[in-house]
Design goal:
With about 425 residues, the chain is of the alpha/beta class. Helices cover about 40% and strands about 20% of the residues. Helix 7 crosses helix 10 and helix 10 packs across helix 11.
Length: about 425
């Protein structure tokens, strides 16, 4: 089978393409722009990747070897309903679906039990922790995760595996396509207003997801929002559990994620919780989740208020003082409008705040573009004396370098991806010593 992946350099489509390749399928694909992950895929032997998503490019691929299945990212029909690739597939009778249908095909074809990690925040880290723990236990595992890891690829297929670990995203209702053997709910906090217009819509989607799972582990606060009680299918962890004291990872969010994983894997394997927590205490972390770029400078993908609060708590814990400096790049103009009220006091306790332009993707054209100055105007009076707008330029690089030199912890909250603050950091500081 020849599967063509549109958006193959993305953190969701890319790992799925690698999984398909490792499972023995013929893989090709396209993307709007080049990135480092595309280079990584090519090193594995996925050579049929081109930049540009026009009608002629996909036609040429189809001529060389007929495409059986076209898999595309959810954002494609939203941004471009009459996308040339979609039009070509329709005209030539090629099966075209989002990634969820293709993944369900793989799960069924390979007889894999799905372990799904869902929730508003913490999905990627929790997914990576689950993979790490299974590896430490010597259990063969297949998986897809949306971040780079030092202990594995972003996508993996092991023919000996019984389980597939998946970061089940709620965007565009992706997670509702699945019926997991085990699910972990990392935390609920209304997000994606373009998909879920009200909080009730958002919670209803998670309630539906919960009903599709054979087993679920979740926190008491989330169970309350979902209106569920403990049953044989649902394990509810108290929010103030003393078990967190047995976890020695930095950051409360990381300790909570680790406990969630330990309880779920204890249920699946019967291994004692003490052994599982011991392995999780050596979890090495993942890319773009409080990842050190150079000493004292970190990049983090936090983009919702809850995630930002968690990243700030972790930074304060690591800094062990009040010298936390933040560079903030909002992810999506639409989301910044949505979280205006929450932004007000988020950065009250930081030493210095730099606000750079918003990272734009799949935006609502009816909303005015918020500039760094607009975002600064939303912040509380407590923040105003130590906040300034900035651009991704030499001046900001020098400011960051000086902060790091004097011992400040610089937390760069970034969207990631091409031309983002995260990419700029890596390019700018790759050859610099702080």
């Amino acid at each position: 089978m020849h599967v063509y992946f549109s958006g193959i350099g993305g953190t969701a489509i890319g790992p799925l393409a690698l999984i398909a390749y490792k499972a023995g399928l013929t893989v090709s694909g396209s993307d709007k722009q080049h990135n480092l992950y595309i280079d990584s895929l090519k090193k594995y032997g996925i050579d049929a990747i081109h930049i540009g998503q026009g009608y002629e490019e996909i036609a040429a691929v189809h001529t060389r070897r007929p495409i059986d299945w076209y898999v595309y990212t959810s954002a494609l029909p939203m941004e471009q309903p009459d996308a040339p690739e979609l039009r070509f597939c329709k005209e030539h009778g090629i099966k075209a679906t989002k990634r969820d249908e293709f993944l369900n095909f793989l799960l069924t074809d390979k007889k894999l039990k799905l372990i799904a990690i869902a929730g508003t925040h913490g999905k990627t880290t929790t997914t990576a922790m689950t993979i790490w723990l299974m590896q430490q236990l010597g259990i063969p595992i297949s998986y897809s995760v949306g971040a780079k890891m030092s202990f594995g690829d972003m996508g993996e297929f092991d023919p000996a595996s019984e389980y597939f670990v998946y970061e089940a995203d709620e965007f565009d209702h992706n997670f509702l396509a699945f019926h997991p053997h085990m699910s972990l709910i990392t935390g609920l906090d209304w997000d994606h207003p373009d998909i879920y217009p009200t909080r009730e819509d958002y919670i209803k989607a998670f309630s539906t997801f919960l009903g599709q799972c054979e087993q679920t582990v979740l926190w008491q606060e989330d169970a309350k929002q979902l209106g569920v009680k403990e049953t044989q299918r649902q394990t509810i962890l108290p929010d103030d559990t003393q078990l967190l004291a047995d976890i020695h990872l930095a950051g409360l969010v990381n300790r909570r994620d680790a406990l969630l994983v330990a309880v779920a894997i204890e249920k699946l394997t019967g291994k004692p919780k003490e052994e599982l927590l011991g392995h999780l205490n050596s979890f090495p972390g993942i890319g773009r989740r409080f990842e050190q770029i150079v000493p004292n400078v970190y990049s983090d993908y936090a983009h919702t208020p809850a995630k930002i609060r968690g990243a700030l708590q972790l930074a304060q814990e690591v800094a062990n003082n009040n010298n936390v400096v933040v560079v903030y790049e909002g992810l999506h103009n639409t989301r910044q409008h949505f979280i205006k009220e929450d932004l007000k006091d988020l950065f009250n306790d930081v030493k210095q705040l730099y606000v750079v332009p918003i990272y734009l993707a799949r935006e609502d054209p009816n909303l005015p573009l918020l500039t760094p100055e607009d975002l600064i105007d939303l912040l509380s009076p407590k923040v105003q004396p130590h906040v300034q707008s900035a651009m991704l330029d030499n001046n900001l690089a020098e400011q960051i370098r000086q902060h790091a030199k004097q011992g400040d912890t610089v937390l760069c909250i970034s969207a990631g991806g091409g031309n983002s603050l995260d990419e700029w950091l890596r390019k700018t500081f790759s050859s610099l010593e702080t």
